[in-house]
Amino acid sequence: MGDFNHGHIQWTSLQSTGREDQEFLNLVQDSFLSQHVLEATRGENVLDIVLSSQKEFVDNVKICEPLGCSDHNQIHFIIKVKGERNRKIRTRKTFHKGRYKDMREYLAKIDWNKTLKNKTATECWNILKSELDCVVDKFVPLKKQRKRSKKKHLSKEAIRKIKSKQMMWKRYRHTGSEEDYSINKEALSQATAEIRNSKRSYEQKIAFNIKHDSKSFMRMFEVNRKFRITSVL
């Protein structure tokens, strides 16, 4: 938002008569920006403009009377943003880093005969379970779980084919039969074809919506430029 002083631009028709104004208009269009002020803000010219990367981010634009001694009208508008949600941090226990020597020493200090004396089987189990939970919490460190990134280029059908292929592979590893090998090979072929179709459809969708969502296109471009995407099945 600001006073860009390009009064010869017709924002409704996206036309301009001045050279500098045309260069600025080309820059806005090449950057896939949306301009939301369509009424005059000083005299008969639109000098104060509001730009956004997506049209949906700005709403309810109003041109109001100048404030104080200013000869520019006020611009009131609403910016639509999503508040950050409080995400619960998920953790898991890293048992391979557990201090098992300290666990054994801790458990060895407990007088089990005295602790479990005159207790029923259920009571003994609850006591044992409670002590084990305590010792695990005490000597096994926690690790934050990373949220898995969603593979947006994979359709539901592609994910289903991948899971089916993985099941067929596990079956073949278990049986080792020629029949299961052939089934696994066919499942791999179907999954690979569906992944390619899904990726192609996703890229076409991104390219079609580039005017309204240029960031997704640039992310896809950077990934394809840096890495050669191959099948990992």
Q: Indicate the low-confidence ranges by residue numbers.
A: 226-233
How far apart lie the N and C ends? 49 Å
Total strands: the figure is 10
Mean pLDDT: 80
What does the largest sheet look like? 2 strands, antiparallel
Radius of gyration: 32 Å
**Helical residue percent band:** 40-55%
Proportion of residues in β-strands: 5-15%
In N-to-C order, the SSE pattern is EEEHEEEEEEHHHEHHH
Indicate how many domains the architecture comprises: 3
Shape: elongated
Compute the number of helices: 7
The assigned structural class equals alpha+beta
**Cross-sheet strand order for the largest sheet:** 1-5
Domain Endonuclease/exonuclease/phosphatase: 1-75
Protein name: Endonuclease/exonuclease/phosphatase domain-containing protein
Organism: Ridgeia piscesae
GO biological process, one term: larval heart development
What does this protein look like?
The chain is of the alpha+beta class and 233 residues long. It folds into three domains: 2-79, no CATH class; 91-144, no CATH class; 156-226, no CATH class. It is 46% helix and 13% strand. It has seven helices and ten strands. The protein has helices at 19-30, 100-108, 112-115, 121-139, 156-175, 178-208, 214-226; strands at residues 2-3, 9-10, 15-16, 34-35, 48-49, 51-52, 58-64, 74-79, 91-93, 142-144. The strands form five sheets. The protein has a two-stranded antiparallel ribbon. Strand 2 and strand 3 form a beta hairpin. The radius of gyration is 32 Å and the shape is elongated. The two termini are 49 Å apart.
